[in-house]
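Sorry to interrupt, but I need a hand with the structure work. It will help me judge whether the discrete encoding reads sensibly. Write everything out right here, beneath this request:
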Amino acid sequence: MNEPERARRIGKRVRSLRRQRGMSLRQLAGLAGCSVGFVSMVENGKRLLDSSSLIAAFAEALQVSPAEVTGQPHPPADPHASAAHEAIPVLRLTLMGLNPALTTSGRPAAPPEVLAGRVAEANRLYHAAEYGTLTAALPLLLADLHAAAAAERGTGRRRMLRLLANAYHPACTLLLKNLGYTDLAFIAVSRARDVIAELEDPVYSALSGFFQTHVLLSAGSPTQALARATTAINELERNLTTPAAHALLGELHLISASSITLDRKRPGRTRAAEVHDHLGEAANLATRTGETRAWHLNFGPTNVGIHKVSLNTDLGLHTAAVNAGSDVRPQRLDAPGRQAAFHTDLGRSLAHLRGREAEAVAALLQAERIAPQRVHSAALAREIVGYLLDRQLPAHAARNLRGLAHRMGLVL
């Protein structure tokens, strides 16, 4: 699909959503922080919404998720990613507590060590971006963990509750967010919040806030996301008793920075300054913690560097993003999904620098080689591939780009 066609498609969706809300062009423009003329051009297919901050601003103004503005989730051509979408109905019923096929009655409960190994494997699959395998495994894992928690008391129950929290996020919540199922990610993070409430542990409560922030961002509400992250930061700063707590505080500063980049209501210079303040806090914490795997995450100097690229990209500071990327070695993380995110964001910025479009294609192809399911499912990756399809590229780059677009399921 070329750029004019994508612009028309998104424009029709924006107009339809605006009319459903009974909003005028002027009202939408005011809420999204844009001019009336810009909104009119978007709706008429003359301007493409191709930046995450603009998409988030329109989504928040229209009170919908970014997926409804862009048309995500997209059915991918990748058979492994397709398997993830095909397994969603079973996971949906499990999250709703309506899956009779997963009854655990009559089966002995698995030993805690076995369940802990399955939770660790689920999170490994998430970071490896093996979405099809993970989506198929989660329903039974969640059912077994809930059954084991129900059978335990005292210390044993608390252990099961922690395992449940670690299964719901990142493995379940961020998987669903990345696949475009924001509503299901909200259910998953709500289930985790209920589990964590019973623990009465302020650090786990802050962890719950971190993942709630992710879902609020995915739903197109950066203001609420930042407010939730700020509450979690304030709570955690009173309970910094372990290295893992410091790592979580660093993650909260990074997600706070991401929330600010997507808040179009803030002036550009203010956004950039606040983003870099949070980056600075995260960098200081990373110096203290080093590379970590606390909470099944990847906080440390490398992840802070990856965020410098993504945040500058989302701020439209493409030269700064590319320069920041030169100092990052994403392969230091045993997390193909994060490595692929780095190369995707680098490609997004390179695509907007004149004469570097072929480098952008190379970066996107590198991301695909590392974690194809993540790249094929990512809305921003799909958007930038569509954008590049309309650019003048060297023959070899154009050919490689068309191949990538085909594997993503994009119409050429």
Notes: The first helix runs from residue 3 to 20.
